[in-house]
Amino acid sequence: MNLITYLTRIQFGAGAISVLAEELALLGVRTPLVITDQGLVATGLIARVKDMLPGTVALYDGTPGNPTEAAVLDAVAVYRRDGCDGIVAVGGGSSIDLAKGVALLATHPGPLDQYAAILGGVARISADMPPLIAIPTTAGTGSEVGRAALITLTDGRKLGFISPHLIPNVAICDPELTLGLPPGLTAATGMDAISHCIETFLSPRFNPPAEAIGLDGLARAIRWLPKAVENGADLEARSEMMMAALQGGMCFQKGLGAVHAMSHPLGGLEAPRLHHGTLNAVLMPAVLRYNEAYCGDKYARLRGAMGLAADADVADFLADLNVRLGMPQSLSAMGVPAECLPAMIAGAVKDHSTATNPRPMAEADYATLFEQVWA
Ligand SMILES: [Zn+2]
Fold first, then answer.
1. Is 215 in contact with 247 (CB distance < 8 Å)?
2. Which domains does the chain have, with CATH numbers?
3. What is the widest separation between alpha-carbon atoms in the chain?
4. What is the per-residue DSSP string for 289-326?
5. Measured in angstroms, how far is the CA atom of residue 79 from the centroid of ligand 1?
6. How far does residue 197's CA lie from ligand 1's centre (Å)?
7. I need a labelling partner for 122 at 20 to 30 A (CA). Which of 163, 183, 239, 242 fits?
8. Is the pTM of this model over 0.85?
9. Within 13 Å, how many C-alpha atoms sit on residue 82's CB side?
10. Quick check: 215 and 197 in contact, CB under 8 A?
11. Measured in angstroms, how far is the CA atom of residue 7 from the centroid of ligand 1?
């Protein structure tokens, strides 16, 4: 196990979940609310977590596939009813993002939308927040060390909530928790980690340490994701992927780009329900081709990290990787109806990640890209 401090406190390694009670005690939490989903309850993991903790443990297990305002309000009601004084999120990005929304509304007055980044919410989020420990059970989102939460509001808008105060106080990254993840979900979440490392690296903001972390995470993910998909029981591959996902989350403070600006509104659709990582996998090749001329020598550095030949095409490589990992090839193959594209274009233009795409993006640029990735 390694203690790493960069943005937040991280306990990393096989078996790391055993430090949960200790970390809660350090934070002074006596009655935590565990936020998770029913799938994880069914695996027995949540019972194991409860057994590790000495006092009363409250539970909210209704996390939906993509976190919603309604779920935040339900979980806040449980938090208040059971007199909780801290939160433990156990799950993928949805449970962790939901927990950030719950922490926010546990101490800040509603409604939730006033805290959204694009509505001027960053300044309204204060440090007055209950302690939050994040325990990821997928290797992808990086939300365990990220300052953002993506939540779909009751009116259908999928908005980003961003603040350093939303960063979990502790991330407990235990690769053993990902051993049972099926190949499709391993691939999709792993492609999300890859998209974080690449988009962060290409973001025009100045932050060399974040770029170095992004390139290292990318190198690990390109090498180990196919192995983790092929053999889910390979603990070394799981550990490397958990580190790659963590690194993606540690660096995306530098800003993401058009891949995420496009996948955020798509992820807010009621139907079909689309997986964030799968969307990013499908979007990445086209966006990388579109951005290439605006990135100076950075694609050569991407090729270096990915172990590609000097004349290899980064976008083509990722398109091939999608095929090898069984990812879909287009938005239409994912069941996205063509009628929703105008709304998706409008959502992408307004998304907070648009500001840090290396190529300036207007409505016409997104129209071109959506057309390419839909077909
Ligand atoms: Zn992402």
1. no
2. 2-177 (3.40.50.1970), 182-374 (1.20.1090.10)
3. 60
4. HHHGGGSTTHHHHHHHHHT--TT--HHHHHHHHHHHTT
5. 28
6. 10
7. 242
8. yes
9. 21
10. yes
11. 18
Per residue in 160-218, pLDDT tens?
999 999 999 999 999 999 999 999 999 999 999 999 999 999 999 988 999 999 999 99
Which residues pair with residue 88 across a beta bridge?
A: 34, 133
161's CB contacts (< 8 A; 6+ apart) are: 100, 101, 104, 112, 115, 116, 117, 121, 125, 148, 149, 150, 151
The token pair that represents 316 in the structure block = 């083509």
Nearest 5°: phi and psi at 90?
A: -125, 115
- Which two tokens mark 173? 């990254």
CB 50 within 8 A of CB 41: no
Q: Which of 286, 307, 302, 181 is nearest to 238 (CA)?
A: 181
242-282 pLDDT, tens digit per residue, is: 999 999 999 988 899 999 999 999 998 888 999 999 999 99
Any bridge partners for residue 91, and if so which? 136
Residue corresponding to tokens 């309604």? 70
Distance 193 CA to ligand 1 centre (A): 7
Cα–ligand 1 centroid distance for 123 (angstroms): 23
Go through 150-166 and write b for each residue having 16 or more CB atoms within 10 A of its CB, e for each that does not: bbbbeeebbbbbbbebb
Gap from CA of 82 to ligand 1 centroid (Å) = 33
Cα three-residue angle 285-291-294, rounded to 5 degrees: 155
Sign (positive or negative) of CA dihedral 304, 210, 26, 51 = negative
Q: Which residue bears the tokens 């207007």?
A: 362
Beta strand pairing call for 8-12 and 170-173: parallel
The pair of three-digit structure tokens given for residue 145, joined into one six-digit string: 């060390």
* Nearest-angstrom CA–CA distance, 326 and 245: 20
Q: Which of 93, 137, 318, 134 is nearest to 225 (CA)?
A: 318
Q: How far is the CA of 196 from the centre of ligand 1 (A)?
A: 6
Average pLDDT, the chain: 96
Closest residue by Cα to residue 203 from 248, 146, 164, 148: 248
